[in-house]
Amino acid sequence: MKLRFTAILLSAFFAAQAQPKSPKTTMPQPAKLVNVFLGSSGDHGQMSPAASYPFGMMSIAPQTYPNLHMGYEHNAKVFLGFTHNRMEGVGCQGSGGNILIKPFLGTDPAATKLLKSSESASPGNYEVGFSNGIKTSIAVAQNAGIEHYTFPAGSKGFMIDLSHTLANRFVAEQHQLDDNSLSGWVESGTTCNAGIYRVYYYLSFNKAVKFVQAAEHKLIATLKNTDTEADIRINFSSVDVEHAKAGINNGSVNDYKAKSQQAWNDILGRIVVKGNPEREKTFYSLLYRTVQSPYVVSENDGSFRAIDGSLQQSKDAAYNGWAIWDNYRTQLPLLSVTYPERYKAIAQSIANLYPYGKKDYATTHEPSNTVRTEHAIVVLLDAYRKGYPIDFSKITDSLINEVDKLDFSHPDKALESSYDAWALSQILAITGKQELSDKYKQKALGSKEGWNKDFKDLTKNDVDRMQARGLYQGTIWQYRWFVPFDVKGLIELTGGKEEYTKQLDRFFDNDLYNHANEPDIQVPLMYNMTAQPWKSQNLMHKYAVDTVVQYYLNDNSRGIDPFVDVIYQNKPNTYVRTMDDDAGAMSAWYVFAACGFSPACVGWPVYYLNAPLFPSVTFKWTNGKSLVIKTDNYTDNRRYIKQVILNGKKLDRNWITQQEIMDGGTLVFTTSDTPVETWGTANQWVSDINMK
Q1: Is the pLDDT of residue 3 over 50?
Q2: Using CA of residue 42, residue 46, residue 47, residue 50, what is the dihedral sign?
Q3: What's the mean per-residue pLDDT of the chain?
Q4: How confident is the model at residue 69 (pLDDT cuts 50, 70, 90)?
C-alpha cells in the first residue's frame, strides 16, 4: 500500500513537471539600472542626484558645501539643506536652487552641522543620513514632492530660506503663513541671469509647527520636542498658489516613490536595450538625463502661463524650460523619435513662444527656469518635416523678425545665423512664399564669403586657439565644419571631396575635435558624405565607448595634460573635465550612437547609421508599433557595418528616414572587425542648400 501511494505521488510529480509552465510576465524595470550620481562630482557634466519626475519642474536635491555648478558634490560631507528645482548640466555656475530647507537640532539652525554619513538615490527618490541622527527621505511625483525627516529626541525644526538660488539672482518673493502651511511665489533670474521666472508653491507640514521670522525672506519652523518624525509636502505651479495647493498629494513617501518609479520605468522603457550589463547601466543613466526637461508647466485643467506672464489655456500640455541652442541637434531629435505623443506638444510649445515675445535667452515673465532658444526655427522646420503639425501662418512674421535681427558679426555667429536663415527660407517655401524664401536663402548663402575669410586658411597660428577671433566656445578648426544645411557647398569650399576628406583626417588624427561641448559634435558623422563612411562608424564607436584624447576643455586652448580616458562612464566624475551635459544634449549623443543612428541634419528627417552598441535595441511606441534593431554577429568592439537589412530588404545606403523608423519593423545590422570600404558609398545623403 505504501509503495503504491509513493508511486502515485511520483507519477503526479513527473506529470506536473511535464506540464507547460505559463511564462512569468514581469514589467521592465530600467529605472533600477540608472545611476543618478553619474556626472555629479566636480565639473563633469554638472548633474545632480535630485529626486525628479520625467519632464517635471519639481526637482529636490541636496545642497552641499562648497558650492558647485549643480549645487551638489558627490564627495562632499557638509550639507546646507535641500532645494527644490534645478536645471541639470547647463553651465553659468548652475541654475535653480529655490527654497532651501535645512533641518536642525536645538534652537539655533546655524549651530547644526549636517555631515553626511549615508546616502542612496534612484530615479524619483533620494535618501541621506547625517552623523547627528537626522535622516531624510525624499520622493517626487509630477510637480509634487515629499520630504520625510526623522529626528533624535529634543528641540528641532527647519530653517527655510525663500531667497536662495544656486547662482542666479534672487528677485522677489511673497509668502503667506496659515497654521502648518507656507505658500506664495518666488522670482529668480533664469539660467545665466538672462531673464526672470516665477514659481508658485504650496508647502505644508503634517505636524504642528511654530513659524518665526528669522531674517528677511527667512523663516524658522519649530516642531514639538516630542516629535521624532515630520513630513513636508510641497507642490509647484507656474499658474498660481491655488493650483499649487490643489496638487498636494497626501500619500506617504512610499506612495510617492511608487508613482515616480512607475513613471520612470514607463518613460525609460520606451527603449529596451539588451547586451553588456555595465553598458546597459550607462545607457539608462544617460537616457534618464535626456528626459529631465523641458518641463510640463500647464495644469490638468489646461491653464498655463505664457512667457509674457499672461494666463492661457491649452488642450495639449504646455512645456517650458528650454536649452535649444545646446540640445537642438541631439536631445530634441531623440525626443521626436522616442516620445512622439509628447513631442507634438513640445514642438507646439516652441512655436507658441513667438506670439508672446520670444527672446534668444529668456523673458522677464518665464513660467519656469529656462536657458536659451536660439535655433528654435530649425527645430520647428525639423518637427514639421517629421510629421508634427506646426501652424506657420500664425508665426511667420515673428520668424522673419527673429532672423532679421540675427548676429552675423563674429565668424561662429555668422555660421549659426546662416543655419536659421536657411531654415526660414525652407519654411517660407513650404508656405508658398517663394520670393521671400529666395531672399533668405541668399542670406544663408552669405556664409560662404565669411567661411572663405575666416575658416578656409588653416595656416594661421590661431586656428587651434579657443575663442580666437571672438569665437564663443570653440576654435576655428571646430567651428569650420558647421554648415549642416549645405555640406555639399562646404565640400566645394574646402576644394572638393578628396581635400575635404584629407582635412577631416587632419582634424581627427591630430585630436582637434572637442567633445566637451557642442560646436563640433556632428563632425564624427561627416565622413558619411565621403568615399570613406567607415571612418564615421569608427568615430561614433570611439567617442561613445573607447579611450580618446581630448585637448580642448571649455576653459583652455590646446596645451599639455590632455584628457586621456573613456568619456562616457557610469560614475560621478564621468565626462571630460568642464564638459556640461547641457540639459541632456551630450547624453542624447550617446543614446543615438548606442541605438545605431544619429541625426544627419536637423531640419531634414534623415539619420546616418552606425554599428549599435548592443546586440538588441527595441523602440516601443504607444501606438503599438515597435522597431527592433538587431546585430547578427555582435561583439562589444565590432564597429564597422557590412550590411543592413530593413524589414527584409537590403539597404543600399548609409542612412534611414524618420518615417522608416516610426513605421517600425526590424532593422538588422551585420558588422565587421575591419572596415568594409564599399558599404555606404553609393546612394549617399548629402545636405544641399538647393534641396527642397
Answers
A1: no
A2: positive
A3: 94
A4: confident
Residue 612: pLDDT above 60? yes
CA separation (Å) from 368 to 56, 173, 451?
Answer: 10, 15, 38
Lowest mean pLDDT segment, chosen from 18-32, 262-276, 522-536, 570-584: 18-32
State the amino acid at position 486 in one-letter form.
D
How many whole angstroms separate alpha carbon 243 and alpha carbon 300? 9
Residue 481 C-alpha cell reads as: 565644419
Query: 339 to each of 7, 71, 86, 575, 622, how far by Cα in Å?
Result: 58, 30, 23, 26, 9
Helix residue ranges, H only, 476-584 = 476-479, 487-494, 497-509, 534-545
Distance CA 589, CA 570 (A): 15
Maximal CA-CA distance, the chain? 103
CA separation, residue 551 to residues 185, 468, 562 (Å):
45, 16, 5
- CA distances for 227 relative to 104, 209, 516, 570, 640, angstroms: 13, 10, 49, 40, 64
What are the residues whose beta carbons fall under 8 Å from the beta carbon of 482, sequence distance 6 or more? 412, 415, 416, 419, 519, 520, 522
Give the C-alpha separation, 684 to 241, whole Å.
Answer: 55
pLDDT in tens, 497-516: 999 999 999 999 999 999 99
d(CA 572, CA 36): 9
User: In percent, how much of the chain has pLDDT > 90?
Assistant: 90
Output the nine-digit C-alpha cell for 434. 517663394
**β-pairing verdict for 303-305 and 311-313:** antiparallel
Kindly tell me if the per-residue pLDDT of 149 is higher than 70: yes
- The model's pTM is 0.95
Instruction: Give the residue ranges of DSSP H helices in 558-663.
Output: 585-595, 658-662
Radius of gyration from C-alpha coordinates of the chain: 27
The phi, psi pair for 180, rounded to 5°, reads: -105, 25
Between CA 127 and CA 256 the distance in angstroms is 13
